[in-house]
Amino acid sequence: MKFSRPEVTVVLPTYNHGKYVDEAITSVFAQTFEDYELLILDDCSSDITAESLKGLKDTRVRYIRHHANIGLVANWTYGIKMASGKYVAILSDDDKYEPYFLFKRVSAFREHEELVAATGVFECCDGSGAFIRLSKSPSETEKIYRGKELIGFALGRTGEWFNGATLYNLEMVRSVWPHVMMAGTSLDFSLHVRLSLLPEASAYFLPHPDMMLRVHSDQESQRNSLYLAECAAKLALQLWRFELKREDADTKALFRRRLSKDINNYARMLWDRNHVEEARYIFLNELSIRPTSVMAWARLIRSYIMRPRHPLIDTLP
């Protein structure tokens, strides 16, 4: 029997979100674009997830349950490896799509085959699905981002680029993934930055919201904020010290503020937890990116004078 390759793979990593995952899966089944496979990767959930997924009969679904918990990075990496579509989307188990999500992004790729990604505005909602806000939009109209504009978007300077609101060119994702997977829980930011730095990279932006990001206390980002900040700081240092060396001065200038902010955020969190020596070391690393910043120097000096829990200088110029 000849295997028919779907145009899109939706990777749905899941872990202990049994109360949300059915809604995420239903939103994929409701897509008006139907040439997809749904790859559900259960990271050895201990709640009702496995039981609730037993009844899935759709031939487009591949359900894989790991025998042990392998963690977010390995689970995402497995999904990128196992995806068989030309394009790939990564849907969190507590988020959901509107029915035209895939159709609009595939249409953008068909019209502009050179794209590395097609993304758009998304809604932020609470655990019950109640609306909180719309994501920051870089444009009020559909637009293709390239060059410095794309880098600025990836860095969050002009808008919010969320992996869950994005359809990617799978070949391009795989080309950068060996570096992306080293970023720990900063996978999404690492992916977007590395894609934006590819030669001739471009991404399509859709200004109308068609997916929902759920924000709630059960999320990894809410429970392990220090580890997330550490991953972001390590990624910032790696990018600055090694991967931006060959970039021009203008590109480095775009990165400087965001990377410095990520490092400073981790240092402050260490400081607030009374990890004084570690915080000072991280403040020193911030100066490697912004050596002429008076405020960065002031933060470091005050860390030798003030006690933990005492506010340092809050403004990041």
Walk me through what this model shows:
The strands form two sheets. The protein has an eight-stranded mixed β-sheet, with helices on both faces. Strands 5-12-7-8 form a four-stranded mixed β-sheet. The relative contact order is 0.11. A hairpin with a 5-residue loop joins strand 7 (123-125) and strand 8 (131-134). The radius of gyration is 20 Å and the shape is globular. It contains twelve helices and twelve strands. The mean pLDDT is 91. It starts with 7 loop residues before the first strand and ends in a 12-residue tail after the last helix. It folds into two domains: 8-220, Alpha-Beta Complex (Spore Coat Polysaccharide Biosynthesis Protein SpsA, Chain A); 224-305, Serine Threonine Protein Phosphatase 5, Tetratricopeptide repeat, CATH 1.25.40. With 317 residues, it is of the alpha/beta class. Helix content is 44%, strand content 16%. The protein has helices at 18-29, 49-53, 72-82, 101-111, 147-154, 170-180, 187-196, 220-223, 225-243, 249-272, 276-289, 294-305; strands spanning 8-14, 36-42, 61-65, 87-90, 96-97, 117-120, 123-125, 131-134, 143-146, 167-169, 202-206, 211-214. Helix 5 (147-154) packs antiparallel against helix 7, helix 6 packs across helix 7 (187-196) and helix 9 (225-243) packs antiparallel against helix 10.
